[in-house]
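hey so i finally got around to running the thing on that chain from the lab meeting. sorry it took forever, my laptop kept dying and i had to restart like 3 times. anyway pasting the input first so we r on the same page abt which one it is
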Amino acid sequence: MPKKTLIELLAPARNASAGIAAINHGADAVYIGCSKFGAREAAGNEINEIEQLVNYAHLFHAKVYVTINTILFNNELHVAERLIHSLYAIGVDAIIIQDMGILEMNLPPIPIHASTQTHNESIEHIRFLQEVGFERVILARELSTAEIGVIKKATNIELEAFVHGALCVSYSGQCYFSQAITGRSANRGACAQPCRSSYNLVDDKGNILAKSKHLLSLKDLNQSANIEALIDSGITSLKIEGRLKDVEYVKNVTAHYRKVIDSILAKKPEYRKASSGTVSFSFEPNPSRSFNRGFTSHFAAGRQLEQATINTQKAMGQYVGVVKDVSQNSFTLDSNIEIVNDDGLCFFSKNNTLIGVKVNRVASGVIYPLDLNSIFPGAKVYRNSDKAFSNLLSKNSAVRKVQCSLNVEIEATTITFTLIDEDNIPTNLRCNFDFVGANDPEKSKNSIETQFKKTGDFPLSITNVIVSCETRTFPFFALSQLNTWRRDLVDNHLKNRQLAHPRNNPVIEPNIVPYPSKNLSFKANVANELARKFYSRHGVETIDSAFELTDEFEGKVLMTTRYCVLHELGYCDGKKRKPDTPKKLYLQDNLHKYPLQFNCNLCKMSVLYPDK
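ok and heres what got predicted. didnt touch it at all, straight out
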């Protein structure tokens, strides 16, 4: 029988409790940041907290990946190396990196994943990463399913893709906008998100083509409709963005994709999920009811319109309906979605400004807000704070259990329990007892079955209990004794599951596989001597220093995007620019005019720092 391909749902963890929630809601793996060197500076965790998450995840054979995906300076190399050894010691399943200097360190045998910040877009680059020892690459978010399929056919490395969450407009790892204007480096985990700011779009004559618009602020990614195509194209890890998101977001979005993936696996026997356990939910997942700026599938099926949220960078949430009537202190919606007290609603004013409305009370479908805020008939209304849904998610909203069967063999003075779970991991417990015959043998036998099925909060579900007895008279067992044996058996089995967690221990041997290019610009993000050593060994002849090591920004590319302002605003049909489109365009803020470059042959746009 051919081996089945494992499909992994990978969820974000701001901390251990969020990671545990993700696992309980169906994640096959979670990724989390350390106190240092993670690309989300505000989402760091100490080793002991990560260890807590590792121990819980491994009960379900779920995995924990730790982000070490900032670029490193020379004085950080030894600290990073020691940290990686500490992560290996607590059982972390892989590290996610950007800086190639890490491959020159004395590493433990831990799998390494190439962060999306290593700009994984071309076959040549991905094949190189495969040949120098990476286990997995996290692909650029801009790739289509067709392009992913081509990469899969040309490589043997595991492929991971983002399927949900906030989108960086720039190719990840090659955005220097924040560093240039605030000194906060995206590649050091401190992005100030200038892509979410508003700009004027102006031409070289000073004409304003778009005023105070969020021209670089993309909608959030939602690939719910494309999961099957992504799996069939070769993606084996489906990743949710959101290490800064709250636990309610993690619960809802993870549960949603668990259900989507499971429906696909049910009809495709060549695939199976990458971890153990069955999840049941006490709510109906719905990503639109969590933080979102509206949704886009980005480039999954090719270029599309309305990828940006140019009128606001804020979350709008779930669309709930159109305003039907407005009175002096209330309004009604043409909608069958229930609005409740303390919901937060928002709408765009007639001049396209996003305005918030707090619901004070609702009576018979009439909404009484704290302030009408100029709401008007015909306004489209969104719910960006969902009180009822938040209340649901604030409670225990999912249960995950590993399915088990139990054989009980009773002899004259001993009782033996053999527990076998869905992964065929066995645990045996043999106990002595003083024989006392049962007055009601059938009741005594039923007590064993009943008590051992009571696993409570333990992540095991014992659904089948078979009891055999070699003595003429069935013995009597006190309920307290059965409960003690059950706790001992379950405790031992959970330890056995952790010990049985499969661990890959690759050893990376340095080689001299040639890098696809002989020359590296600052976009390679080389900020330390070990990264230079790595690239030199692989045949690179000239290596520019990272953007973070210079203060000369004039004329440099701050970001390159596959998203294009011309296409978004209708100056291009996706094939060619309209004849009356100005040749020179700029994004203008209070400080600068940033020139835009358009490579129409490759259908890409770049934002430059202005010349002096």
